[in-house]
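In this supplementary section we document a worked example of the pipeline. Step one takes a protein sequence of length 393 as its only input; no multiple sequence alignment statistics are reported here. Step two produces a three-dimensional model, which step three serialises into structure tokens for compact storage. The input and output of this example are shown verbatim.
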Amino acid sequence: MVGDSLRVGSYNVPFILCLSMQNDHLYIFLMAFAAKTRLIGCITTLLFTLKLVSFVDAVPQVPCYFIFGDSLSDCGNNNKLQTLAKVNFLPYGVDYPGRVSTGRFTNGKTAVDFLAEFLGFDHHMPAFANVQGNGVLQGVNYASAGSGILNDTGKIVGGRFSLLQQIDNHKAIIARIKQIQGNNDATTNAYLGKCMYTVNIGSNDYEGNYLLSPAAKRPAPPDKWAAQLITAYSDALKILHGLGARKVAIWGLGSLGCEPSQVIQLKPTTPSGCVDDINQMVSLFDNSLPKLVDNLSKTLPGAHFVYVNMANTNPGNNPAALGVKITEQPCCKVGEAGSCIPNSPPCPNRNDYSYFDIYHPTEKANLHGILKAYNSTQPKDVYPINLSKLALL
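The serialised model returned by step three reads:
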């Protein structure tokens, strides 16, 4: 990160500064800087980046945060399902607070965990499967490993909640929120309209659906498949808007052909070192997302949709930006399904790896990606505005 910087209000704080100080001195400097500039909330982002603190007391930028997606965001919704897509065992969670295997598909925090922190919450959003009482008021995580935009995606792994099923679960949560708020529709609708929503889904519609069949037996040519997904995605997002969502960020899929799962299996000899054919297929979907967010924002009342470009925020595509050394091999020992072997020791140098298993990023990669989504001013990273600005609308 040397030479890079983090935007803090109207200031650029160079990361080289971070490398020149001991943690205790840096903490004192940042807190003094925060007090002087009244940028406590913004400084929190940098503190998280350097892992000097886990949470900083702050008023959340939004009243609640709702999460939809697949294994990149799942925090344990699959734990009680009959499915191959669950990881409630070590080494998953080895770096999560308390060294707890919650069901997150990484060694520590997911991108949405970090985003909850950046938004000012003092906790990560609870899984729909576990949330209780008034906890629903600050948000819920509905994400389910193995799921996709299409209902039949991921059936090879067994139980999972598709995007539409996750939205149905959200309806149940809305009913609970209304009850807590006195069954006043206007109050609840206004409340939900101020919340943050993120949706990161679609990878399994390729890896757990389309790419499982030989090319000659696939249900449609790549362009038609991408168009089908975009139509289904648009319909689902419109339903979410109808339930009160107004601030919605959706993730692209990035370069799936660069994942260890594809590189190890197909052994590409391309200059990129990736399976370029898969990346080209996925780009047909990703390239349609900016137009989708523009269309939804223009046609749906009060809507603000944002597109996060995973191809630019994924450190596996640009390891030098993150400082990782190993992008083609997983950090843990994996079994036949590509998940870490239960209770096997992970690599000791986890910050040197982009991927924890053959599909899922390490905590360091998750942090790098969400920092760009939250803070970048480049449309190639996040379009049309970043997540920090979206939260404040």
